[in-house]
Amino acid sequence: MEFFFLSLLCLFLLFVLLFYKSNFKNLTLPPGSTGWPLIGETLEFLATGWRGHPEKFVFDRISKYSSYAFKTNLLGSPTVVFAGAAGNKFLFSNENRLVQAWWPSSVDKIFPSSTQTSSKQEAIILRKMLPNFLKPEALQQYIGVMDTISQRHFDSDWVGSEVVVFPLTKRYTFWLACRLFINIDDPNHVAKFADPFGILAAGIFSIPIDLPGTPFRRAIKASEFIRKELLAIIKQRKVDLGDGKASLTQDILSHMLVTSDENGNFMKEAEIADKILSLLIGGHDTASSVCASIVMFLAELPHVYQRVYEEQMEIAKSKAPGELLNWDDIKKMKYSWNVACEVMRLAPPLQGAFREAMTDFMYNGFSIPKGCKLYWSANSTHKNSEFFFEPHKFDPSRFEGSGPVPYTYVPFGGGPRMCPGKEYARLEILVFMHNLVKRFKWEKVIPNEKIVFDPMPNAKKGLPICLFPHKA
Ligand code: HEM
Prior knowledge:
Helix content is about 55%, strand content about 10%.
């Protein structure tokens, strides 16, 4: 009998202990430091990128706190970083259940919505519209246009014996976006937009201090300028559509003007300007950084260049003079795409993205309160030897067969919010590679110039290269 009561007492104590422990854990945020008031650890976060090793911010903290989740403060918000494949999987598969998209308040200041909705709501609306333009079937018809613009770009910009690559690839992807989104392909008109877009992109992930001369203030001004220009273009398009001078399907802009929502409401001009602005921003800097990084890696790895060259020349030789690239050609560019994927593993254009907890939940024994900002980090898996053997080695064969383990390779994110422009980006990058290697071999002017992350990959001096055109 005594034994029975003693067992009951032990069981009771165990329950009390478990109850206490679980409640205690409920109060336990992941370990970490929130750094300085206001700016938190933003400077360290950005500085590891400026030094060329953005992964260091994450890896230092993983090893310091022995945890794949740690708290910090980024861009003015206390944030929990979810690192590793498990962190990615958790965030991507709990979208709109436990977590939702979130942008730092600085983004809302640079992209103030004309409809008084937040950037989060804007993204939901934009996401609903995009599949129509960006689905693979629709995209296939753009390949010829991409090839034409790409050829014109190389003819006009890749001239002389030396060029600086990063600004050039920006011109290429921006030109393409202007042509395919708003049907502007006059290089002078495109150029008028290009500078303010550069300023805008540089300010998005800067420290959000709105004072004269700061990158943040400059980005807000640039956003206002671009919005005005876009409004003028939209007004003109409305006139052209009315006069039959523009077609209903010629680009994203026409589509936005003639498509109503489920209640039959059409978007207002200012609303369309907001959406085109987000698309032009999201859609050109990312892909241009990949194109430029490809040029850098191919310069450093002649054996990789050689295989890309052979693959692309086989396609080039199969074409009649003047015949443009098509979908069948793209399907043959398998090795080239593996190279581009490996470039995006080592130099992902976006280092990660934010989420917000929709409710209180537990992750790995840590409590995450409702409203807490969360961040997934591409580098926490891309450059982690746990997921990629010899992670700093350039090896396109990683993408052969079934490729990397799920949730380890995430340059485009994952889950319901995965980048909707992924296929568009794939096409513009492959078309770029085709026209590049078909024309040139090249060498870096500064042999040890490295990529730095600001926060997108960029070469310190813009990657000057010497061009060696192939003999006809
Ligand atoms: C190599 C090029 C690109 C890369 C690496 C890339 C990567 C990404 C990533 C990581 C995200 C964030 C996903 C998240 O929040 O978890 C994203 C979102 C987005 N991307 Fe891309 N992107 C690229 C090109 C493009 C292009 C060409 C377009 C448009 C044509 C585009 C449109 C968007 C949009 C609209 C979003 C927001 C989606 C949402 O919030 O639901 N991207 N992209």
